[in-house]
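Hi P.,

Sorry for the delay on this. The queue was packed all week, but I finally got your sequence through. Input first:
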Amino acid sequence: MRWQDMRPSDNVDDRTDGASGGGGFPIGGIPLSGGAIIVVVIASLLFGINPLELLGLMGGGNPSQVQVPSQPAPGANGASRATDPQREFVARVLGDTEDVWGQVFQSIGKRYVPPRLELFRGATRSGCGTATTAVGPFYCPADRDVYLDTDFFRELQNRFGAPGEFARAYVIAHEVGHHVQNLLGTMQQFDARAGGDPRTRNALSVRLELQADCYAGVWGHYAQQRGLIDTSDIESGMRAAAAVGDDNIQKQTQGYVVPDSFTHGSSQQRTRWFSNGLRSGDPRDCDTFNARSL
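Then the structure:
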């Protein structure tokens, strides 16, 4: 993956040095530590939206194929201030999503306002409440920020067997996909439709997450067009999408699968919708809410 050729974003806040360590984090007023945290972390790894405030979407727009600049400008908008390779990687992937979605939004007559991405370690505050390691990566609709604990990538590789740079890029692009949903004004529509019924909310949440996977694939489509990723990178992204399927996580955490409790989709569903976006690069092919089958 040629991430060094991507333009670095200026919208990354690195707070990893400011977070306090410790042997457990409070969830809902209950301190967790040791094995309990591990279980919660595993179960939360695929939370694309903060579980403290699950909102959603019903995407809109009618974009045509867009032309993303074929020559990335690594120095555009100022050189990256990153000295840490992981931070620089995140900044450059985020910057490339900004370029792609900026062009997509322009093609439908809209303006793309990029999110900020906060890197943290241990715990941090967000507009959706206190975020901890147990929450995993998430997007907060209230402040339109993406939050990423730097330890997550290690979990993705070691616990779920999804190593590789593009696997990490997929995680970032998925969260940005939620931001796209929010900008399109459809998260509120999701919340209104979901109501208070848990089954309805879970079913719609699956469609929400699968659309974010597809949007991640849309970004990957244009990265591939410009020679920034290759076939091996795509395979890495597919492994990551499969690794965070609800069925895979439930098998690891409880030993059996309960489809009615899915909130993000099965491994097969996540790889399918990620592939849809990768194949076409057209957000119109990401309409999970009107799809008869997922």
